[in-house]
Amino acid sequence: MNKKILIPALLVVVSGATIFGTSLVRAQDSSTRGPSLLIQNLVEKFNLKEVDVEEVFTSTRNQERTQMQADFESRLTDAVSSGELTEAQKQLILQKHSELNDKQIQGTDEWFNLSPEERRAKADSQHQELEDWANSNGIDLKYFFQGRAGDQRGTRGMGQGRHLGN
After folding, report:
1. DSSP code, position 162
2. How many CA atoms lie within 13 A of 120 on its CB side?
3. d(Cα 25, Cα 104) in Å, to the nearest integer?
4. Residues 6, 147: contact at Cβ < 8 Å?
5. d(CA 94, CA 80)
6. Nearest-angstrom CA–CA distance, 87 and 5
7. 128 in helix, strand or coil?
8. What is the value of pTM for the model shown?
9. By the 8 A CB rule, do 10 and 154 touch?
C-alpha cells in the first residue's frame, strides 16, 4: 500500500481509537454521565454492583494499556539492538508518544464538537506535524506506529472488531 495513504489512515485510526477509548472512560464516570449501556446491562442482567463492574472495566483497560506500552517499548528496544534506531531516537519516540496521548485525551471534547471536514483537516494537520517531527529527527514513522503498518489490527478501534481479511 502506498505510504502516502497508509500513514494518514493510521493516524486517523489511532486518533479515532484514542477518542473512542476516552469517550468510554467518560461514559463510565457515573458522576457526570451515568454508566455506559454495557455496564448498566451487566449490572441488571447479573444483579451485580455497578461499582464492581466499573472497577473490572477500569482494571482491564489499564492492564491492556500497560501491556501495549510494554510491547511498544520492547519493539523499540529491539530496533535499537538491531541498529535500526539509536537510543536517543527511541527516547524521542517515547516522549512524543506520551505527549500526543496526553494531547489527545485533553482535546477529546474539541474533536466531538468538530464537523467531519474540520476533523479531517485537524487530523491532516496533526499528521503533517508528526511527519515533520519524524523527519527532523531522522525517524521512520513505522516505529511510531508500533510496527503495525503491515497488519489490520488498527481497524478494531473503529468498530470493525475483526481483521479485514477475515
Report:
1. S
2. 3
3. 14
4. no
5. 13
6. 29
7. helix
8. 0.62
9. yes
Alpha-helix runs per DSSP H in the chain: 3-28, 37-46, 50-81, 87-106, 108-112, 116-136, 141-144
Between 50-81 and 37-46, two packed helices, what is the crossing angle to 10 degrees?
A: 130
Question: Which DSSP state fits 165?
Answer: T
CA–CA separation, 166 vs 164, rounded Å?
6
Residue 160: pLDDT band by 50, 70, 90 thresholds? very low
∠122-126-130 over CA atoms, to 5°?
170
CB 8 within 8 A of CB 127: yes
Q: How far apart are the C-alpha atoms of 14 and 12, rounded to whole Å?
A: 6
Per residue in 49-85, pLDDT (tens digit) is 999 999 999 999 899 989 999 999 999 999 999 999 9
Rounded CA Rg of the chain = 18
Cα(35)–Cα(80) distance, integer angstroms = 44
| Separation of alpha carbons 131 and 125, rounded Å | 10
User: Residues 137-140: contacts with CB within 8 Å, 24+ apart?
Assistant: 137/89, 137/92, 138/89, 139/85, 139/89, 139/92, 139/93
